[in-house]
Structure formats: structure tokens, C-alpha cells
Amino acid sequence: MFNYFLLRQTRGGEPPSKLRDTKAAALILGFLVFAGHFASAGAQESTATRGRRISNAPAAEATVTVNEQFLNAFLTAIFDNLQEPAMPLTIGGAPPQGSSGQCASEIRLKREVQGVRTAVHFENGRITGPLAFAGAYNSTYLGCMEFSGWANAEVNLEFNSERRALVARFHLRDIRLNDVPAIANGPLLNMVQTAIDRRYNPVDLLTLEQLSTSVNIQPAKGALRLRAREIRTEITPSALTLYITYEFIRG
């Protein structure tokens, strides 16, 4: 389920109606402007007056709702159509000596490891789920060590005004490693934790630029730009909801 809702005034109003796609939204907005144009045909407005009316309009809000099924289907599509996400394993920020193509020191996200499947679950206020992974580390003393495992992960979402994006931060808990010598288990755990927590975070999920668009309204002989200003989130056991604040400006 991936539902878009009609833009609504943040100062009250009727519940938003569902839109099937962006083209439908543009048609409805165009119709409203078209009707308003003829309703006020007897009172012509100057360009400056129309500009002030647009800028003084209250902010509008769009709502996007995503359920677990959608995000898990998205993960499946990554594994089906793209390479497995990978990142290097390092000590002190530098690749280990002797790293080569035959034993690349890296960790790769896997669809499933020993019955544990990478997935997303919603809880109140947070996103959790297991992350399955596999990789290798080229050790100077122990040679090429291949490993696999999984970890419980927690994802926190927040809007970063400086990055102008909704960002995600991944936190790993209860990391389990398989097929690793006891002497190397501790160092590898630290490298896996660092690879995810420090090298991968934060991740820009959605930027304001990606969420902004223009609507061409031919009857009004112009266009309006729907410029996203802020994103806030709400996570419940049934869905992740994004509230996107927009402003309308002359496009």
C-alpha cells in the first residue's frame, strides 16, 4: 500500500481525498484555478496582486503513507535487480594490508543468511528489523577470513534542515558472526559495527528537491511550483506516514 493524499490546508479543513497519481493531482488543481478564473472574470487583477495572493496563502501539507509490505517489496527489488549493497571493512580508516580482488575486505548486505531474512518492521516511533550480511577480511596473520551473520537493526528518521533531506541513521544491536575464529571475533565485530554506524550513516532518503515539482495550468496561462519545505514522520505498527509541508510559488 503506497497512498498519496490530496494537498490540504494545515489550518483545518476536510480530510484529504486520495489521488491515484500526480497527473490526477495536476488536473484537479488546474480545474480549481480554471473555475476560479471565470468566477472572478469581472474583477481583473494585476500581476502584483496575484503574486501577493499566492505568497500570502497558508502552507499546505501532503501526506504519504507506506506500509511494511511496500518497504519489504522495495528491498526484494534491490536484491533482484541490483548488486548487493557493499561497503569496505577497515581498521583505523585504512584498508588492511594485502587486500586483493581474491579476498576483498568488505561486508555485503544479503537477502538471507541461515534462515534470517533482511526485513523491515514498524514499531511505535521506530523502524526495526534483522539485517543479514556476509563478507571477508584479509588479515595479515590469519589470511582471508570469510564470514556471515546477522544483526538486529534500528532505523531512526529525522529531517535535517542543513542537508534539506529526510535522513536515516542505522544502529546495530546483537551482532552475530558465523565461521569466525575466536581470536578474530572481537576485531571483526568492531569493524562490522563501524562499517554500518560510522561509514554508512547518515543516509539521505528523500530530499526536498526530489519532493518538489511544477504544475502547468494552461487556463491560467502559467505554472505553479510546489516547493517542499519540511518533512516530518510518524511511525505506527501499521504504517510509516510522511507529512510534507509545501509552499506554492509562481513557477
Question: Which secondary structure elements does this structure contain, and how are they paired or packed?
Answer:
Elements: E1 2-5, E2 8-9, E3 18-19, H1 22-39, H2 47-55, E4 60-66, H3 68-81, E5 86-88, E6 106-110, E7 112-113, E8 116-117, E9 121-123, E10 126-139, E11 143-160, E12 165-178, H4 182-200, E13 203-207, H5 208-211, E14 213-217, E15 222-235, E16 240-250
Antiparallel strand pairs: 1-3, 1-4, 2-4, 4-16, 5-6, 6-10, 7-8, 9-10, 10-11, 11-12, 12-13, 14-15, 15-16
- Given helix and strand content, the structural type is alpha+beta
Q: What gross morphology would you assign?
A: elongated
Largest sheet: 7 strands, antiparallel
Number of spatially distinct domains: 2
Q: Given the structure, what is the number of helices?
A: 5
Q: Overview of this structure, please?
A:
- With 251 residues, the chain is of the alpha+beta class.
- The chain has two domains: 2-65 and 207-250, no CATH class; 84-206.
- 25% of the residues lie in helices and 44% in strands.
- The chain contains five helices and 16 strands.
- The protein has helices at residues 22-39, 47-55, 68-81, 182-200, 208-211, and strands at residues 2-5, 8-9, 18-19, 60-66, 86-88, 106-110, 112-113, 116-117, 121-123, 126-139, 143-160, 165-178, 203-207, 213-217, 222-235, 240-250.
- Strands 1, 2, 3, 4, 14, 15 and 16 form a seven-stranded antiparallel β-sheet that branches.
- It is elongated and about 70 Å long.
- The two termini are 31 Å apart.
- 14% of the residues are buried.
- Residues 1-45 have low confidence and may be disordered.
